[in-house]
Amino acid sequence: MFTTATGAALRPDYLTGRFRRLVAASGLPPVRLHDLRHGAATLALAAHTDLKVVQAMLGHASIVLTADTYVSVLPKVAHKAAQETARLVLRAASKLRRELST
User: Fold this and answer.
1) Local confidence band at 86 (pLDDT 50, 70, 90 cut-offs)
2) At 100, is the secondary structure helix, strand, or coil?
3) Within 10 Å of residue 84's Cβ, how many Cβ atoms?
4) For residues 16 and 6, what is the distance between their CA atoms, to the nearest angstrom?
5) Per residue in 32-63, pLDDT tens?
6) How far is C-alpha 33 from the chain's CA centre?
7) In degrees, to the nearest 5, what angle opens at C-alpha 7 toward C-alphas 31 and 24?
8) What is the pTM of this model?
9) Are 70 and 58 in contact (CB under 8 A)?
10) Between the CA of residue 78 and those of 82, 83, 86, what are the distances in Å?
C-alpha cells in the first residue's frame, strides 16, 4: 500500500498510471510496477539474503512460491556458484590424490 505525505491511501490505478508515465519518460524499456518485486527479490538474494527473509519481505506464506516465482538467477551469481562448486570439486580431488599416493 502506498500513501500520500499525509497518510491517505493512493488509488492503485493512479499509482499504476503514474508509474507507467515515469517509465515512459525515462526512455527505459517498459516495466510493470509489480515487476519491481521480482527485481527486489533477485537483488536481495544476490546480496546473500536468506531465502526465508526474502519470503517474509514479500509476505509469502510459502517459501516455494518465493523461490519458484519471484527469484531469478543473475549471471554474476550463477558464475560465482559455478566457481565455488568447481573449487570444492578440485579440493576434494586434490585430497583424494594425496590419500592415494600415500
Assistant:
1) very high
2) helix
3) 10
4) 20
5) 988 888 888 888 988 889 999 999 999 999 99
6) 15
7) 20
8) 0.61
9) yes
10) 6, 9, 12
